[in-house]
Amino acid sequence: MKKNIIILLTLVLLSAVNLSAQSKVEKIDDLINRYNEYNLFNGSVLVAEDGEVILKKGYGFANMEYDIPNEPKTVFRIGSITKQFVATLIMQLVEEGKIKLDEKMTTYLPNYRKDTGDKVTLFHLLTHTSGIPSYTSIPKVWSDSLRLKYSLDYLIDNFCQGDLEFEPGKEYSYNNSGYVLLGKIVEVITGQSLADALDEKIFKPAGMVNTGIDDERKIIKNRASGYERTFDGFRRTDFFNITNAFGAGAMYSTVEDLFLWDRILYTEKIISDETKEKMFTPYLSNYGFGWGILNVVMGKDSIKIVSHSGGLNGFNTRITRFVDDNHTIILLNNFSGAPLGDLSKKISNILYDEKFEYPKKSIAEHLYEIIESSDIGTALSLYPMLKTEEGESFNFAERELNSLGYYLLGKNRIDDAIEIFKLNIEAYPDAFNVYDSMGEAYMIAGNNDLAIKNYKKSVDLNPKNFGGIEKLKELGVEIEEPKKVDVPEQLLNSYVGKYKLAEGFFITITVEGNRIFEQATGQQKFEIFPETATKFYLKVVPAEIEFFMNDKGKVHKMVLYQNGNEMPGEKVE
Question: Which one of 42, 488, 531, 556 is CB 3.0 to 4.6 Å from 550, fit for a cystine?
Answer without folding.
Answer: 556
